[in-house]
């Protein structure tokens, strides 16, 4: 059952990821990208990470995609189909297939160590995934968390300044 | 049974497709979307290995990747709007204002 689900969603994810690159219209690319994000959220649920699936849907498929679609419509790019570089397909295929072969080689060669941490499946089920993440984030990763808030503030100010007409 | 290898191969495939799109397309927004695709495939690797190694750190890392991606989306799209005001296009070929 899990295998069937995995292969089904893997096929949909790869197919829609390919169509992100192939669609002539940027709005279509954006919609295919949403499909890919939702498939990845399903994988996160299969990997016992429901909180990550929720924020994948909310942050990526919600917020970021709304931003991208909004900009596409604001700039009226829906009909520009000029497209691609000459001979780009050959070189891009060459580089990406080379990259795929290389990563496959390293994945096959590497052996994951038998060393495991203390967060078992039973623990995730009894505590709840969100609580475990919150505990880790507000104890061990408190400083990165605060830095992330400053990063978001800087991003807000930067976006407003950049898109203003006259400074 | 689906193991960690399956997820890693899948995310390698999605990452390669993202590279393909970045290299092939001219439209800056589509290039941007392909970069998001690559970020997401790395997130999938992080979560798969986090489950495999039974450690929470990978998922915290995914959280920060998402934060940085959101900040990047806001600033990148603002840059594109500013660029479009100047050049009336967002083709990657037209990003040549620093060229002498």
Characterize the structure shown.
The complex is a heterodimer of chains A (167) and B (100). Chain A has helices spanning 2-22, 26-46, 50-74, 88-109, 121-127, 129-139, 142-163. With 167 residues, chain A is an all-alpha fold. By secondary structure, chain B is mainly α. Chain B has a single domain, classed as Helix Hairpins (Orthogonal Bundle), CATH 1.10.287.3510. Chain B contains three helices and no strands. In chain B, helix 1 runs antiparallel to helix 2 (28-52) and helix 2 (28-52) packs antiparallel against helix 3. The interface between A and B is large, with 82 and 71 residues.
Keywords:
heterodimer, A: 167 residues, mainly alpha, Four Helix Bundle (Hemerythrin (Met), subunit A), 2 domains, 7 helices, B: 100 residues, Helix Hairpins, 3 helices, 0% strand, elongated
Number of strands of chain A: 0
Whole-angstrom Rg of chain A? 20 Å
The structure class of chain B reads mainly alpha
Largest interface: chains, residues each: A-B, 82 and 71 residues
Overall CATH class of the largest domain in chain A: Mainly Alpha
Q: Beta fraction of the residues of chain B?
A: under 5%
What fraction of residues of chain A sit in β-strands?
under 5%
Number of strands of chain B: 0
Q: Return the CATH class of chain B.
A: Mainly Alpha
